[in-house]
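Lest this sound abstract, we think one record worth quoting, the chain in one-letter code, the fold tokenised, each line plainly labelled:

>
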Amino acid sequence: MALPGNSLVEQMSQLDAARNLVLGDAALYPQIVHGILPIIGANSRLELRRWGAEFLTETFSSPAFPQQPKQKLATEILGAVKDLLNTPENDETVVRGAILTAASIYVLIFRQVVSHPDQAALWETMTAIKHTILKKWDTSSHGVKICCVKFVQKVVQVQTQGPIADPRRPEKNETSIAIVPRNHPLLTLSNIEAETSGLLDRLLNVFHENSSDPILVNATLNSLPVLIRTRPSISNKIINAILNFNPLKQANAPITPTTKVNIKSMERTTRALFLSIIKKAPTHPLAGRMQQYIERLAQSHNEIFEEASRKRALPAEPTDVVDTAKRARLGLETPQHKIPPLPPGPTSFGQLFTLTEDVGLTSFDVKQLPVDLVVKIILPVLTRVDSEALDQAIGAVRSRYETICKKQVFERQNQAANAQAAVDEDDDDYEPEYQPMDVTGSPTDMEKSTAPAAEPLPDIVSLGPFVLPKPPPLSPEDVEHLGKETVSRIFTMITTLPQSTKAVVNNPSQSIGFGRLAASSSDRESWLTLLTRLATRSSAGLESEESNDAQQGSAKQNIANTIRHMLYRYVLEDFRARMNFAISWMNEEWYNDQVQLKHASSQIEGDPNNPHVPTHYSHWSLKLLEGMLPYLDARDKVLIRFLSELPELDPALIQKVKSLANDPERVILCVQALHYLVIVRPPARQLCLDALVDLYQTMEETRPLATKILLKWRPDSLPEQAKQAPTRDPRRNPNSSNSTPVPQNGTASTGQNNTAPIQTARPGITST
């Protein structure tokens, strides 16, 4: 469609007529778009470019326009969109239309590049448009920023792993990186995932910074529901970012009418988002936290906004009619609290702080009240006490204390003066024995009497350093008893700690495994990790075969085994809720056993007398399984999860699982668990198949379920009659001699759909 270059009014009328034409028939979109592309170019008038940008946005957002011609048309107008973004005027209307058009065609261009890897120029143009839009994100006006948010939301949705409805028909699946081949020459999955993660962080940065811009916050909140609904891999990250956002943060400053409107708009948008998520997914893992967030938001809203709408509180009037501030002008005296004098004699702390003469109050023993009740009473009283009365009471106690200190100093000075006077009086009473000068004595006696006076007196002040005596050594029984008490106190403390709030809980793929720091925080998971490693690694290399025999003979346990017994009891108290910890503990035990065995094997070559290295994984994994088996019902899937995530399966564990078939109600659970291990645990496949063969041969109840499994994995172990039985339907031909009886309640079947569902969680470490 070519338009003549007449006046602007005539051109605009023709363009409006063309728009009305395509609104009636969507098949005319390609023809109209090809006709207007020369008119809305970079050198056209601003009015024409505005109309063209809006028309392109309408074209690629129209649901009446079919997908295939829309995708073909998107590859042809990509250059025009790039020119509209880079116009010199940088008009807001033109830029907004170009960005919204780019958001609509990004999905089409991405699918086109996936299907045609040779179109490198097309992808380069789309990449240049993307970079131009991202540059305008932070520097443009609010209208352009909102369009940039929409574009980034589309990019994140396309470049994130999406659901695959039918792997055989990728053209029918949703556009995401799930349809991108791994060896695609233009789309490298690692680069795309890194770019998507950065764009998502940049999109959620408005919540991390607690932005006060309501337009940008509301635009971001309105763009996130589609990501939460269609992309489960990033939904938890988005919800956690919003949960950390406080739309009422501006309420700390003085609230103006504008601020009030801004806060209410962000609050309502956030609440509407969470309510829609809870309504559509009531069983969402974060539904409880979202509900608490909504309630906390409503409570904070009432405290902030409804307080101002209430009636004015009663003014604080002075209780004695005349306020203290007015007394100075009126010439009245400020009433003073009467402070009683201290009683004679020694003063106690109670007498020092007693400022009342009421006998009932002074005789009351406060120690009879609980500490928490005293705290609840004191805090409200302190908030309502008069500041002047409090200052007067503090000054009275201070003056009392200074008086007592001066009195004590005066008494000590009097005591020292009296002691000195007593010494002087004793010196006056002393009269040395008089010896006349004419009394002659031997010179030797004179030397003996004067010689000791010349010797220096011993220094009795400088004493040596004082050293406390060493405590007596603890006996092994005392050490064992103190260790048990310490571990018991830690377990008592763990039960009062909250669950972990890390992102690892919400996103298990971010777990760092054995490299994580034990007790890096004060939550329950960190302390349990610390106890597990104390049990598994603290005694590594200290145990030997002789020491183990001696301990078994004397019925004693070291601290590691004490912790293991307590961990065992802790898991079995609620093994369904604590299954994550049980699996983590078994992985630590297996890892420690493997490290010790490897270290011992490296030393055996040089030292043939190397002691035996004790292992603990097999013993405790079997003991945990034995403790859980009596409480499992026929539909309990916790057994399958426990077995699938154990690092290693040995014959003892398989035999213990096989013992479930002794209970007729749990035959299905036994066979399903073995079947699941056959599928997902290749190292233990032969052990499980041997167990299934044994069950098939010894227990008739297991044959309807085991036949289908053994036909696929080990048909040579079945008789010829059983091999032919699945080809017939025993329900249609119940009189057939080769048919296998099928229970009427449907609890057993030879169909593969009755086996345990394949879990999506990656199993634990497997041993080869």
Q: What stands out?
A: Residues 387-429 form the longest helix (43 residues).
